[in-house]
Design a protein that fits this description.
This protein has 174 residues and is an alpha+beta fold. It has two domains: 61 residues, no CATH class; 66 residues, no CATH class. α3 runs antiparallel to α4.
Length: 174
């Protein structure tokens, strides 16, 4: 979000009204900056036109990294660095490696996904939250529209938001 931009903020009370409003506002050619909700709203990402996330690809790659790391570590430790014959098994025997491999796959995948999510979402402990209205963390749904990205006038967008069910419409600068 750039500094010095003007935004219109529509406050909605109900998620069903919000979903219809997002569809109607987009049909009228208004570009929505973001919608903030206090809880997940099913179907909102489809109405906003978001592309499908690529995070599952990252999860697979982190899991694959964990699997390769676990197998390589065990093969090195038990087969090369300190070879021991335990119970008459070979130095490198895959069945005993399965539990450690599974656990390290899950661990690396989980840590990698948390890190990826935090980087993609721009979550930092020192960053101020991007809230247009504090009620969006409690019980209200907030639709933010960047006036600089839209060709319609501010008054036209205000009337559109009021027509589609916004309880109140505020103008703010960020």
């Amino acid at each position: 979000m750039e500094k010095g931009q003007n935004y219109l903020v529509g406050i909605f009370n109900d998620e069903d009204v919000l979903l219809k409003a997002v569809r109607q506002v987009r049909e009228k050619g208004v570009k929505i900056f973001e919608v903030y909700t206090p809880f997940p709203v099913h179907g909102l990402e489809d109405e906003l036109g978001y592309k499908k996330t690529r995070l599952p690809i990252a999860a697979f790659l982190f899991g694959l990294t964990g699997t390769i790391l676990a197998l390589t570590m065990q093969m090195w430790m038990l087969g090369v660095d300190w070879p021991m014959i335990i119970g008459g098994k070979d130095f490198v025997s895959l069945p005993p490696f399965i539990p450690v491999t599974f656990e390290l796959t899950v661990l690396i995948s989980a840590f990698g996904m948390v890190g990826t999510f935090m980087v993609v979402s721009d979550l930092k402990p020192y960053k101020d939250p991007n809230l247009f209205d504090k009620r969006s963390t409690d019980d209200k749904h907030v639709m933010a529209i960047n006036l600089g990205n839209n060709s319609l006038a501010s008054d036209d967008i205000k009337s559109i938001l009021s027509d589609v069910g916004a309880e109140e419409v505020n103008e703010t600068q960020r």
